[in-house]
Prior knowledge:
Radius of gyration: 18 Å
Number of helices: 6
CATH superfamily of the largest domain: Nucleotide-binding domain of ferredoxin-NADP reductase (FNR) module
Largest sheet: 7 strands, antiparallel
Strand content: 25-35%
Bound molecules: flavin-adenine dinucleotide, FE2/S2 (inorganic) cluster
Distance between the termini: 33 Å
Number of domains: 2
Strand order of the largest sheet: 4-3-7-1-2-6-5
Amino acid sequence: MLPQALTINDIKIENSTTKTFVLAGSLVAAPGQFVMAWLPRVDERPFSLAESNPVTLTIAAVGNFSRAIHQLQIGDKLWVRGPLGRGYQLPGDPLGFENQTNLPHQAMLIGGGYGVAPLHFLAKRLLTDGHHVAVIIGARDEANLLCVDKFKSLGVSVWLTTEDGTCGQRGRVTDALVPLLADSPNKPHMVYACGPTGMLEAVAKLCQVHRLPFQVSWEAHMRCGVGLCGSCEVGHGWLTCLDGPVFGFNPKFLDAW
Length: 257
Ligand SMILES: Cc1cc2nc3c(=O)[nH]c(=O)nc-3n(C[C@H](O)[C@H](O)[C@H](O)COP(=O)(O)OP(=O)(O)OC[C@H]3O[C@@H](n4cnc5c(N)ncnc54)[C@H](O)[C@@H]3O)c2cc1C
Ligand code: FES
């Protein structure tokens, strides 16, 4: 799959480290899928789709490549290959999880850092299919909370957590999740998470304790993005670019994490 050059139509500054790039082009893609973004003579890196129509990427500047993207201006070009990988499975997809076909489905979305952006794409898809959506957004502090107004404008329930207590509940996303899992009428049928590895591990452990199915969008070092180089192997022979980046687990059937 060759990269296509897409013009940057809009750039939104989300916070001190993160920008959202809206590109002139669309893809037929599922929430959770990613593209390989390429800058000639710089590098190529994977980024989750924050939207597929138009192609939208929310990117934190943390190293050489992401900082180079942050230098781009409206009218510049970014090359993308994709969509790649397996996205989030939606209710009715053949996962074999309990309540998968019971409609409407109660979805709990949990996001941290730039991981919140692809969950907004997922929320829109779940709402279009008639499901109930709640979201927990976590960050270090208020300035780093992403997409809060975008989620509120969807009309979904939004819980906020900050580690320093500057907005919402003081603590981590799991601190907000625990009481919601105990609340049986609102107990989710599926947890969908995207964010830093530590957050995903904590959410996964909690879901295991509560015997709740969950899907996490995992990150690994990628080179080819299409299953050829093996650099994204995460154990069990699984390739993050092909078998993921979204991995689904049902603790009732699978106790290993
Ligand atoms: C499936 C997938 C989806 C992804 N989606 C997104 C996305 O939507 N938005 C996005 O911004 N990135 C996303 N990434 C990460 C992205 O691909 C790059 O790894 C990231 O932009 C860093 O690349 P770099 O070359 O700028 O920095 P590097 O040179 O690779 O790293 C520079 C330094 O920053 C550290 N670092 C790397 N990543 C992070 C991080 N996330 N937070 C803090 N420090 C970090 C490294 O440990 C290193 O010390 C995704 C990765 C995968 C595998
Ligand atoms: S990135 Fe090459 S096999 Fe996954």
